[in-house]
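Repro:
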Amino acid sequence: MANIKPFCMPKWGIEMTEGTIAEWMVNEGEAFTKGQVLCLIETAKITNEVEAEYDAVLKRLLTPAGEEAYPVGALLGVFADADTPDAEIDAFIEGFKPAETSVAAKGGGSAPAPAPTPAAAPAPARAPAKIVTNRAISPEALKLAEAEGVDIEPISGSGRDGRITYQDVVQALRPERAASFKGSAALVEDSPEAFASPLARRIAAQHGIALGTIKGTGPRGRISKVDVLALVKPTTASAPSFGAPFELVANQPQVQPFDKIRKVVAKRLTEAKQTIPHFYLRMSASVDDLMALRKTANLVLGTKASINDYIVKAVAMALVKHPDVNVQVHGDSVHSFPHADVAIAVASPKGLVTPIVRQADRMHIAQIAATTRALIDKAQAGKLVYEDMDGGTFSVSNLGMFGIENFDAIINPPQGAIIAVGGVNRVAAEAENGDIAFESRISFTLSVDHRAIDGAAGAQFLQTLKGLLEAPEGLFA
């Protein structure tokens, strides 16, 4: 029997239900080798390369690249030996039955996709320049870099362990934006030889009056403000005019349909708000000692840890002490974890994303700061990969840098809770001696899934978090 294998839509993580073929890197009827990139698959928030696990031929391409999303397990193509007859391929597709869960090139799928569409003819390739490098780079990325003459040394790889991906090379091919200068500003002609006060010069410039024609009445013939104002044409004493009568103009909206990422985010947040019974716990903590310790620690450690990095560390330590809050909810079961994988909400060109600082409870503050900075940079560059956002046991959403005092965040399923962080505010408080003094405080709102976490558990978690922030030496224990 011929060696025929299905190529199905992979499942990357519990939350993935569908994906879109962003680009095929292999044409129908084309042979490929192990490790070669077969296609780019776009999921809810990222685009991943799918590499071949063995040598074969793409005998049948069933799903052309485009905007259409296919469910996990859908049959995307068929791999086989080069001499496999088409009749056997047709029989395989007709008799193919989907498995419950599948990964690329390992079986599973859905009903056969529409009739195969011929792959587009490849663009004419330029003469490639051989690149010799010890850096980790995918075969397709290396092929593109050689074909386009791209220097890969300055490229920062976004793949696992810094591996240069196809998207990294594409990004490097994009031209840098050039600054557009409008030219010099038009200045009013001045008379430097005129003996005038600075204010007189300014008024003369505003009204286009030549100082050389004015006879000054000030000391030693200096031109004063009064001399210039005497030549300014007076305005009419009638009621001020604001131009033509006010008329309504067209106020047509600019319609911008949701892109794929925004659709997914909207769907997930709507489902979370509708299906998860949220309840909220609020607390504030004094952070004067934390802010003072941060300045000293950053100097000693040679790092640039932010207040949010310290909050992530404190949250992680509190989660380990309260494992009943460090959970995920999957249907009728609750998954508890021994370590805290803390997701941080980040605004990116693709919308709100939540990359994860994994096992933050085991990191010291300098490691958290470096990890967070790297994740934020990748998010803003649109280079996050699926592994950066898969899972997470708790989320931190901080809007304090925008002056927000407090807010309520929506839980990011399947996580059981999320904490919303406000800004630092100076408030009046009673000192130990009974006097009134000012201190810096941050407000927190904990959103909790009541199906899995009770109010007492959430309150005890906040109490521990408050203690860690107000006695920050414990963060270095």
